[in-house]
TrEMBL record:
InterPro entries: AMPK1_CBM (IPR032640), AMPK_gamma/SDS23_families (IPR050511), CBS_dom (IPR000644), CBS_dom_sf (IPR046342), Ig-like_fold (IPR013783), Ig_E-set (IPR014756). This is CBS domain-containing protein. Gene3D superfamilies: CBS-domain (3.10.580.10), Immunoglobulins (2.60.40.10). Pfam families: AMPK1_CBM (PF16561), CBS (PF00571). PANTHER family: AMP-ACTIVATED PROTEIN KINASE, GAMMA REGULATORY SUBUNIT, SUCROSE NONFERMENTING 4-LIKE PROTEIN ISOFORM X1.
Length: 472
């Protein structure tokens, strides 16, 4: 991070600073400069890159017209600054001393070059990241996670839910809804072991099957249809399908022992494209199993963040803006090439279209946007369990229920206190460290990258994106 001085030299009673680096929601107080009654200043640590900002003076948004500013495509006018990395500054800046305007040090040539981009529409100037920095960070992470075992993830206290494989799926999904679970293991007493996982994806497939009026499963049969019967039926369903099978449904349960390294646990999650791995302790004869914990990527990420919190310099990548790193899925106008197409839907689209995308594209969430591409909400795979409330799924038609209506059911089920945590955002200028800290919250599975001020969706960064990048 680079300490950057901002100044407002035009007086006022109360002056605050806000910008893309505060997500335009936090107002930083500025203090009068000693010996002056009109000059206010604030020093803020910024990640290298392009940032926009503005001043709130006595309750009124003000622009410093003596410093560079830009009008974006939405008509918003903000000052802007390009923060440069100290180690590369000598190769970018001119050899003569920098000019100072209104107390803020800027390089006018750099800003004039930036202002000429895209016909006046500003773009972040990308600096090259050293491959050696990436290799060093990945190597240190690999050493750290290889040195510690899954025991580090076990909480001091807590509870783990396990369902009997004979339990009707209708009752199972009610339990998942009531306990706020997106995935839960089930126990097969005949085998004396945990034999699989029931997930939100299963509920989506059941809803689609009910919607298709297939003979495999009806509303009446759902009352007594067991988890075991559903799992066997799902195999038959995919065998009859003309579409190529995307997942090996007969694969054994992916699990880990408490002695396995954190790196091995993370790789099992990533390689098998799953969200959770049960940590199971087995007796020496293998006849007795004990479920200790459900390991997931947020827990491992939280461990990484805690380890490097007081020594961020040990990982050179942490202070880089995420917009400069090869991770995440981006809109075509943000990145010229994408491994995956960024999928967005509008709120009036039928729920059936969203469920089709979640299953066929194998994605976990879809940003919901308005006609201008600005973020309104987020529909995630785990949201489907909210339809278990009062058996709402029995009374709706997937092709006649809009995403907006489905989200209303989600809010009714989750309550207003959790509503603000559903749709978490970040900016391209946010550092990888900040993004990792926020993704270490188990509730936050991904961050929507938005344009500062307009909330136009620019990309999405998920937990698996971060781990795939860190592991290379």
């Amino acid at each position: 991070m680079v300490p950057t001085r901002f100044a407002w030299p035009y007086g006022g009673r109360q002056v605050f600073l806000s910008g893309s680096f505060t997500r335009w929601t936090e107002h930083l107080p500025m203090t009068p400069v000693e010996g002056s009654s009109v000059v206010f200043q604030a020093i803020y640590n910024l990640a290298p890159g392009y940032h926009q900002y503005k001043f709130l003076v006595d309750g009124v948004w003000r622009l410093d017209e003596n410093n560079p500013y830009v009008t974006d495509e939405y008509g918003m006018v903000n000052n802007f600054i390009l923060v440069k990395e100290p180690e590369v500054a000598s190769s970018i800046l001119r050899s003569e001393p920098l000019l100072s305007k209104s107390g803020m040090d800027v390089d006018n040539d750099i800003f004039q070059q930036a202002a000429s981009l895209s016909g006046g529409t500003q773009r972040e100037l990308v600096l090259q990241i050293s491959e050696s920095d990436i290799d060093v960070s990945r190597r240190r992470l690999s050493i750290l996670l290889s040195s510690y075992t899954a025991y580090e993830l076990l909480p001091d206290s807590g509870k783990v839910f396990v369902l009997d494989v004979k339990l009707p799926v209708k009752q199972a999904f009610h339990i998942m809804y009531e306990q706020g679970l997106a995935v839960v293991p089930f126990w097969d007493d005949s085998k004396g072991q945990i034999s699989g996982m029931l997930t939100a994806s299963d509920f989506i497939l059941i809803l689609k099957e009910l919607h298709n009026n297939s003979s495999l499963l009806t509303n009446e049969e759902l009352e007594m249809h067991s988890i075991l019967a559903w799992k066997e039926g799902k195999i038959q369903l995919h065998r009859k399908s003309d579409e190529p099978m995307q997942l090996p449904f007969r694969r054994p349960l992916i699990q880990a022992t408490p002695q396995e390294s954190l790196k091995d646990v993370a790789q099992k999650i990533l390689q098998n494209k799953i969200s959770t791995v049960p940590i199971i302790h087995s007796s020496q004869d293998g006849l007795c199993q004990q479920l200790l914990h459900l390991a997931c990527l947020p827990g491992i990420l939280k461990y990484i963040c805690r380890h490097f919190r007081h020594s961020p310099g040990a990982l050179p990548l942490l202070q880089n803006p995420v917009g400069r790193l090869p991770l995440g899925t981006w809109a075509p106008d943000i990145r010229l090439t994408n491994a995956y197409q960024l999928t967005m839907l509008q709120p009036n689209v039928p729920l059936s279209s969203a469920l089709d995308l979640l299953t066929e594209a194998q994605i976990s969430s879809i940003p919901i946007v308005d006609a201008n591409g600005c973020l309104l909400d987020l529909f995630s795979r785990s949201d489907i369990t909210s339809l278990a409330k009062s058996s709402a799924y029995v009374h709706i038609r997937l092709d006649q229920t809009s995403i907006h209506q489905a989200l209303q059911l989600v809010y009714e089920a989750s309550g207003p206190l959790n509503a603000h945590r559903r749709c978490q955002t970040c900016l391209r200028s946010d550092s990888l460290h900040d993004v990792m800290e926020r993704l270490s919250d188990p509730v936050v599975r991904r961050l929507i990258v938005i344009e500062a001020g307009s909330k136009r969706v620019e990309g999405i960064i998920s937990l698996s994106d971060v781990f795939n990048f860190l592991f290379g």
